[in-house]
Amino acid sequence: MVVLDATIVNIALPSAQRDLGMTDGNRQWVITAYTLAFGGLLLLGGRIADLVGRRRTFVIGLIGFAAASALGGAATAPGMLFGARALQGVFAAVLAPSALSLLTTTFTDPRERARAFGLYGTLSASGAAIGFVVGGLVTEYLNWRWCLYVNVPIAIVAVIGALTLLRDRSERTAARLDVPGVVLGCGGLIAIVYGFGEAEPRGWTHPLVPAALVTGTVLLAGFVWWQKRAPVPLLPLHILRNRNRMGCFLTMALAVVGMFGMFLFMTYYLQVVLGYSPVRTGLAFLPMTASILTGSTQISARLIHRVPPRLLMAPGMLLAATGMLILTRMTVHSTYATDILPALVLMGLGMGLTFMPVFSTATAGVDPQDAGVTSATVNTSQQVGGSIGTALLNTIATTSGAAYVGAHLTDPARRAEVTAAGTVHGYTVAIGWAAAVMLTAALTAALLATAKPTRYDAEVEDAVPAPVA
Length: 469
Prior knowledge:
With 469 residues, the chain is mostly helical. It is 77% helix and 0% strand.
């Protein structure tokens, strides 16, 4: 539900804009309000889960997310929708880390843990693609408002399941929240996410963009300084000093840079260049979702206790980079079956191989009182990576496309043809850079994620995973 909402509204945005009378300049806040609150408040949400209790926080997050979704679906003005999306992000920041930390503390048997994290990795990697499918279907056959209302029944089922099935093994402490850490850390993350989010509509040279990025960097530097001195830090720095966890955080951030860029460009390519409908565009991503499921649950989950995580993560990123490189050959006249589908399948397999061991390794061996904030750090790297990828790669695509049109537009009568070719050229250049980022992710995983495989004795059902050194 949380990952779905990062993209489900994208396809519905044109309809919502017409219905509520949004301006072109303000429409981006339907997306930005959510990602800003979600990415900026994740560390706070993770620590709240550790202090208050993960099941309780999970249920509160579900109820709040559903209420915010209902409010957004009933929006009568742009400001009401923007506020509801921001509220969704706030409750998502509480919900996501508590969900992941509940998996960490609930599934200690390595085989069950592998299956659980395989499914979690699948949802995290394919949620954006599923969002396009659901958004297209709902927008075309119902109404854009149902892209938000759909969360209400999902949340109701999840709350019932949580109260019935989940048992919180949290070791809660009486420690107080690190307020200065919250202000510095969350403020820095919000400024960084906001800066990259505004770089797309405003351009990198707009004074607001570098100001936000510099402010965020200064606040995060202050955050690190304070965490070394805080009696009960918001983010204990020993979590970041662990080589394997840091390798997982960096691999996740770099992988998502490329993945979000690919979703952005392929959505526009399929709809604008190839003329696909919203539903057909969403369905075009389904093979990728299926291959993510295969990579996560049928390959990674079966091998995670037999091979070191990096032997899944690094090859996974190489596969994903190969899929991206295939997409750099796209033209205005490419066909889906021969030019797009193979790349999406490779991308999906690569992401499935990578995400499951990233989540499992990053949270393995962590102290129970730090499970929430560790889970939040994984999610934060995912959100910040997505924001950076969208803004940076979109800028590359725009500038490359404009340069192509300027160099090839010699006959005004061919303007439409050259413009289309320039647009696709911009996409392929940006996707090439995304492939380079994924190759960097492969190198990062190979060098930093040196954890041993989590083995289990088939005769012992209550085996626990070995701590990450």
